[in-house]
Amino acid sequence: MIWNVEEFVRAATVTVEGLAAYVDESQRGGSPVLGRRPPRELAEKLGLVRWIREGGMTPESYAEFLAAYLDEGTRLHHPAHLGHQVAAPDFPAALADFVHGAANNPMAIYEMGASAATVEFEVLRWMLDTVGFGDTGGGVLTHGGSLANLTALLAARAAAAPDAWTDGVPADLALLAPASAHYSLTRAAAILGLGERAVMPLDVDALGRIEVTRLPDALDRVRRAGRRPMALVAGACATGTGLHDDLRGIGEFCAETGVWFHVDGAHGASALLSEEHRHLLDGIELADSLIWDAHKMLRTSSLAAAVLTRRESDLDAAFQQRASYLFYGDQGSDLIGRTVECSKAELGLKVFLNLAWRGERGLGDHVARQYATARRFWELARQRPGFTCPYEPESNIVCFRYGTGDQVEIRERLMEDGAFQLTSAEIDGVRHLRIAVMAPATDDKTLEALLDRIGEEGRQTSR
């Protein structure tokens, strides 16, 4: 059935009006930040089974469905959304999703989406220049940081064991990483065939940061165990705490010892755009590979993550492939040789449109503003009795405790009525509450209200 363009325009108008009202209400904080209705009950409310089996939705019935659907989700633009590291997307990125939804140009093969591929090339060139890799580096955008970490480690594996793709993974490879590393790195080690036991821990301080002076000891342990390092992973910043490893010190050690240096900059690499905070990434140009998520601090919708390598040939070696219907003739403009995905969405358009509207400075100002709001929370919390903060924040992530009671119970009480969303993390074996300031609407009023509520709930749990 061909498109009914008139019906599409009516439905698209409903969508734009519904989303505009949803974002406006969310930014004002006039509704709960999240809903947690049980799945079976929610499916019934949305009429999912009926719509799946019978169809027949019209622009009018779609408007009712969309309103209910949005009302039952999580409002990332809400000032009280302080939970997960997912952007409150800016509207240019939303426009890109709309364009892709209609045009659908999966562009890992250039001829399937020349404009989309060209936009991605230029976005990647900008990212490579920003991190200091310049014209010698290579890059690709993937659907998320987990896939980006996997891709980067595939490049590292190809460098350490060039025959692994055809002959299998040598049993002596090891991945060096701190316990604070994102779970996707251990998962990638298992997917790559190394196994979890090949992930060998690095010495860290009480806050989970890599101790550079003890790296020689770690490398010695790896070699005495009969293994050779495939890569060493550092965080910029750590997912749990928002703290940064010493990239320059680690990078210099890796350069001296010939160890592949991978930086997980999924969250923190965007600080390169802020003059006030780019020093946190000092030494990032020494990395052999790094990842950078646009769907975190660059305000794009999920998912859009960059894999960047200092040497373009390293990324090109990550995959090997054969398919006579795809690979023939000049493949110079195709990205499929660098990704797991073939039908890859027009990810670069989301980043490009945000840049085109806001510019580098505008996105850098957003990073600085969110970091400043997190620091403001830290300052306010320290002034209140019962609150303890184990470190001074370096990003928009803050961990803290209230009292000595069950911090998870405090979190659950806060989320019961949808008033606030926040998460939790362990630091040195101790459970903490955790906020990630992602929504531009979060302000002092929100922070004070959150601290008031935590105090109230914390006193209740300790009785």
From TrEMBL:
GO molecular function terms noted in the UniProt entry: aromatic-L-amino-acid decarboxylase activity; diaminobutyrate decarboxylase activity; pyridoxal phosphate binding
Gene Ontology biological-process annotations: amino acid metabolic process; carboxylic acid metabolic process
Keywords carried by this UniProt record: Decarboxylase, Lyase, Pyridoxal phosphate
Residue list for modification N6-(pyridoxal phosphate)lysine: K296
A Pfam family assignment: Pyridoxal_deC
SUPFAM superfamilies attached to this UniProt entry: PLP-dependent transferases
Cofactor(s) the record lists: pyridoxal 5'-phosphate
A GO term from the CC aspect: cytoplasm
EC number: 4.1.1.86
UniProt-listed PANTHER family: CYSTEINE SULFINIC ACID DECARBOXYLASE, GLUTAMATE DECARBOXYLASE-RELATED
Family that this chain belongs to: Belongs to the group II decarboxylase family.
Identification of the protein by name: L-2,4-diaminobutyrate decarboxylase
Annotated organism of origin: Streptosporangium album
